[in-house]
Structures are given as structure tokens and as C-alpha cells.
Amino acid sequence: MWSNVVVTLVLFCGGIAAVASSSDGGGSVRFAVDFFKHAYTARQNAILAPIAIRSGLAMMHHVATPDAARILRDGLYLPADGLGVIEQTKWVMSCVNERKRMLEMLSRVYLPDALLNPELVAHLRDNFGTGSEIVNFAEGSEVAERVNSWVNESSRGMIPEFLKADELSGDVISLLINVMVMNASWGFFDEKKTKKQTFHFLNGDHEVDMMKVDGTLPRMYLEDLMTDAIKLSYGWRSDLSMVILLPRKEVNLEHVIKHFTADHYNQLVQLDNEDKWYGNIRLGVPRFKIEQKLDAKATLEKMGLGELFDQEAFQVLATRLSKLGQVKQSAFIKVDEKGTQAAAAAAIQSYLISGSWDVDVDRPFMYIVRKESTKDILFIGHYSNYEG
């Protein structure tokens, strides 16, 4: 049985709610790293999908006022024109769905029986394949039931209850939901070799199940971060991989996250296609599971996108504009032996690690799940706290 990752993002606009995912390479990486750093808290583990938040907002660019559209393009590192925004998002979504067995994204929009902007439904349907459904938002329980039924089915049972009736305030006029499901296997961890081992969490030492592998894997040392990077590829021809960033004992995780940049990520991309990075390694990785619900509004405000929440900026209805109210994300990741259920560039130096290497990931670390062909960051997070 394979593991799964399910990510659901919801954006509430003073009447509109939206959810989405995917993006281009360069801009999406910059946004992902910025978002992760601004959302970081040492008090809890994290699983984030900034690519979903960026794309959800990008999907609404088409019905944004000129001023709001400019804020979106600047803050999300989007193309300079509306057509470019659409084509970029369409392309990434098609890339996500090219191997639906391992990674798939579905979206659906819920709308009132009212006079809507005639371009909205057609825009979402024709460009992103978004299905639509008419609902009465005054009947919160019924709407929540219908939404939860679709999310449960689309997430393959991973999210049985996503929306509660009391989350639908009186000014909600639209709900756009996107579910992304990842189902990928490793193929090299042997469950018989897993053993109990101490993990040095920020909130104390605890025993964990440490998975073991002995083989040839790509690895790199980021000198300025004093951090080792190890790439674990998912099954044959999956186009997916996880990179674990393990700070050396002389430095803590918070320091690494604070100084990690998109340029460091671009260094890690070298692990995909150069044999020189491969070396013998005896590696121990903990089984872990993280569930996180994030109200992303505060993070976006820290990143300079606060104006989107202060002005009537989106033409959802034909007769009036709507404000962006909230941005929420619900995410889940489980990693076990079977797989996963869900500074200037010139100053950055990376080094080969010569000889055989024996390392256990037994202290707080950062991880990135990525799509190699597009270089996109699908999920990014850290495992640092014992949560029982």
C-alpha cells in the first residue's frame, strides 16, 4: 500500500473562496521559499504547499482590478501580462496531471444563483478544467455537506471533513476548491531493517521508528548553511523526489531556514543530473506524519500582499466587487518505508562528500518534495517537534 499526500487550499474572498495549485519554475520557487520562511514557527512541524496558494491567487488574476492584478503579479512573481499568467498556470497544472497515478489535481467551484461575472465560470472551466455547482450559501450545513462529499472523494478518503458550516459567513458568495493528491513509493526501504532510535526533537528526546537504506544516493554539502542534503527519488519514472536538508550538529534548524534562499534550492537541482553527486551512504530516516491547518493570510501580509485584503479587488459578481477575506490551507503528509502519502548566488558553495557516509536523520530537519522535470517545489516543511 502506498502512502499519500493530500493538500487542500481555500481562499475566501469577501464573498469568494478559492483553492488551487501549481506554477512555473523560477517564480514558483522564489514564492515557495519566501512563503515557507515567513510562515515558519519553531513550535510545530510543518507541511506547506506554497505552489497551491500562489496558483489559487493566480487563477483569480483574470477577474482582478488593474491595481490588484499588479499586486498579484509583483508579489507572486507572475508574468507581466494576463495571458502569460493563464498560460503559465495551465502548463503547470497539466504537468501535475501527466501521471495521475502518482500526482493529481482536481478543482471545483461553488457559486450562488445570482448574476455572476460571465467570464468567471468560463475562465475557470476552459483554462483549468474546474467544474461548477450552484448552491445556496445561506444553508451552510447543506453546502458544507456537499463540499465535504466532493473533497472526500477527490482526496481518496484522506480528508473526510474539510469544511464546517460555521466557516461559511454571510458574505461568502463563491467557493473554489482544489485538491492535490500525491501517491508515490520509494522502492528501497526495507521494513525489516527499521528499528527504534532516539530522535532529538526541539521539545525533548523521544524514540522513533528509523527506516534504513544502504546504497548509492545523491548527496551534497551546502557549506554556508553547514547543512547536508540527501535526495531520495520516488519510484521508477515518477519524476518526483524528496530532498532532506539536515543541519550539522554545530548549527540549528532555525538558522538554516532563516538563511535558505532560492539560490540554495537551485544548487540542489544539480542533484538531478550529475553522477558526481552520487556516493555510498548508509542512511536512517524517521517515519513521520504531519497534519497542519494554516491560516495563510498573516503570512501573505508579511510578504507585502496585505493590500489584497483591504480593497474590493475581484469581479466575481457582475454588479459589484469583492474583497479577499481569508486564505487557508489544510495539508497532510505521511512518510514510511513504502513512500509518501502526500545571499548572492556567487557566495553559495556546494561540495562533494567523498567516501562512504553513515548518517542518521535524528535531529530537526527540513524537507522538500519536488517535481524534477519542472523544478517546482510541491511541498516544503520541517520535522522538529514531538507531537505524540
TrEMBL record:
Start and end residues of each Serpin domain: 33-386
Signal peptide segment: 1-18
Coiled coil: none
A single GO cellular-component term on record: extracellular space
Transmembrane segments: none
Alphabetical list of SMART domains matching this protein: SERPIN
Domain of life: Eukaryota
Gene Ontology MF term list: serine-type endopeptidase inhibitor activity
Keywords from the named record: Protease inhibitor, Serine protease inhibitor, Signal
The family this protein is said to belong to: Belongs to the serpin family.
Protein name: Serpin B10
Organism: Culex quinquefasciatus (Southern house mosquito)
Biological classification of the source: Eukaryota, Metazoa, Ecdysozoa, Arthropoda, Hexapoda
